[in-house]
What does this fold into?
Amino acid sequence: MLSSRTGWWRAVLPALLIGCGSEVAPPTKTESPSTIGEARPAAKPAEPPFQLEDGFELLSFADFAAFTTDETAPTPWAETSDGLKCSGIPPGYLYSTKPYQNFTWRLEYRYPRPEKLPDESKFKGNTGFLVYITGDHKLWPICLEVQGKHVEMAAIRENGGAQPVTTKDDAEARQKARQPVGEWNALEIISREGALSVSLNGTPVSKSEPDFLSEGLIGIQAEKTPFEVRRIRICRD
It folds into this structure.
């Protein structure tokens, strides 16, 4: 009897040990019907390194002076590693320490994106890029302005009492070229004897005919909206 019992345990014990001691493989993860075939968001590609174009000069915070409507308030401007940022308040503008006439001015700028923004066409982000600043510094100086306002990017306007300027503006091109709020938008402003041509992210958007303004300082507006500007560079032609 003992030998038969021993033989029985010898036969059964390995199976019991295998069943108790082996790890149980975790269940295979399956996708729910609602996620099968669902596209996952692609990772945003890294930006290529910036290279300064031949003939261009980088402009830093030190190349500008500031005009403000409230000398007692903290400055809205601050230098960054590759440009500057602005709180927008108090209103005012930076202006270059040197005048320019025939030039190509390039830069990139963006607004912080609000947490809730259901309709980008109603975003009120506003700034401007000034050319041919002349006369006394005031709000706003005599100049032409390339709009930085989100809904009017790259439009050309007269400012500060300047004579009306004749322009051609392509609203459809602007709509297609403009990046969403929070993304960088690249402006190129070309001045030739008082005539301007402006491109947005490589797409021509607006032109102006020569007027009584053809030379002066360049500047950047603070207009109650925070924003950043980077890669500010200019080439005299």
